[in-house]
Every structure is written in C-alpha cells, then in structure tokens.
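Structure first, sequence second, as always.
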C-alpha cells in the first residue's frame, strides 16, 4: 500500500488521498456502505492497513539508564485501519508541544522500540537532526514519516520497523529504524526515500547508525552511511 492512499490535510506538501473511493458510497444489498470520506461522522466502512502498528511514548528524564528508560516506555495504542490512525493522530499531543526529553515511537506491532528487540538487534536507524527553529513544522514532518511507514511507501518496506520523533532542549530528531544494517544498497535506498519524504535539501546530511555499534559503545556515535 503506497502513500497515494493516505489522506493528508492541506499543507506545504502535495495532499494525498487515502482510499480509492473517497467520494462515492458503495451499496451492498439494502445496506449502504459509507466511507469516512463520504461521511466523517457516520461512516461504517474502515480501510485496513497491511500491517498493525503500535504507538509508544516515553520521557525518561535526564538521568535515565537502560532499566529506568524501559520502565518509562509506555504503549499508547495499537491500530490497523486508516480511520483509527486518523482518530489517534487527531487526539494525541503534537510533538512540538511535548516536554524536552520526550519521544514518540511508531512501530509495527510486535516490535518494541528497543535495540534489544530481535527485529532491531541486527539493524540500525537513519537519523535526521533538525534545529529547534523548525518549530511546529516538526509536526508535519513526523506525520509524513508515519504516513510513509503505515502506507508501506518504502521500496523495501519489509525492512522498516518503525519511526521515532525525539524532542530535545536544543533540537528535534527523527529516526527511521530498520531490520538490517549491513546491506548498503538497501539502507541507502531507504535513506534517499526518507530525504525525499521530508523534502530535505541536497546538502542536508542524514546519518545511518547501527544498533550493534551503539550497544558496544553505549551510544550511537558511529555512522555506517551518510547521505
């Protein structure tokens, strides 16, 4: 499922539409099948996603270690339809309004947003760091990442585990987590798609960091690839 199916409110980026029949209700016998696009209040049809997704939140504080961080990681909600996604998106605090130190994680259900999870253990993440002056635009960028993930928009979608938006005192950070780290072709393909999704300038660099390198060093400070 590509992001051509994802409905996005009008922004600086081209709007996209989620649902092949957004205007015309279908009929089945005597029952009228109404989509959310025809009647946002009284719809009775939901559009399933290819995968189920879970949103997580944490704000561990300045002195958190791995154990205390895990305890602060909270599962918010799981969803598997387009309509449920938009219901959640419209009722959670926007990233720009979160306290510094906070993180939202959106991962395929069954994968925890932790290095140690089996789906992440041999993988890594593309990291995009953005200045605090990005302001409320971080909300739009995070939306684009979520839509690209749940819409199966990446060429190697099966290698994508999820995305993270991190709020820090002096910057924002968006990360895209992957199952693999040692296939340069696949990693760079997804990285280029990520840059395009965020409409980054050619001279804006993104970095790929391996989780195994982070486990060894205690932090993600070694870049495998850059674009």
């Amino acid at each position: 499922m590509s992001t051509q199916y994802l409905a996005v409110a009008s922004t600086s980026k081209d709007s996209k539409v989620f649902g092949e029949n957004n205007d015309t209700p279908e009929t089945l016998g005597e029952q009228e099948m109404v989509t959310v696009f025809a009647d946002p209040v009284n719809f009775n049809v939901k559009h399933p996603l290819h995968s189920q997704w879970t949103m997580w939140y944490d704000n561990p504080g300045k002195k958190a270690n791995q154990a205390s961080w895990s305890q602060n990681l909270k599962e918010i909600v799981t969803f598997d339809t387009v309509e449920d996604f938009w219901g959640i998106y419209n009722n959670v605090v926007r990233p720009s309004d979160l306290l510094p130190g906070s993180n939202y994680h959106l991962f395929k259900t069954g994968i925890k947003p932790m290095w140690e999870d089996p789906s992440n253990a041999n993988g890594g993440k593309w990291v995009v760091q953005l200045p605090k002056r990005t302001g409320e635009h971080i909300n739009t960028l995070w939306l684009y990442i979520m839509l690209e993930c749940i819409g199966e928009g990446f060429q190697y979608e099966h290698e994508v585990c999820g995305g993270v938006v991190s709020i820090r005192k002096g910057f924002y950070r968006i990360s895209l987590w992957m199952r693999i780290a040692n296939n340069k072709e696949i990693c760079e393909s997804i990285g280029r798609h990520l840059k395009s999704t965020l409409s980054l300038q050619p001279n804006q660099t993104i970095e790929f960091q391996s989780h195994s390198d982070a486990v060894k060093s205690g932090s993600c400070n070694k870049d495998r690839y850059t674009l």
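Margin note: The domain at 49-226 is CATH 3.30.760.10 (RNA Cap, Translation Initiation Factor Eif4e).
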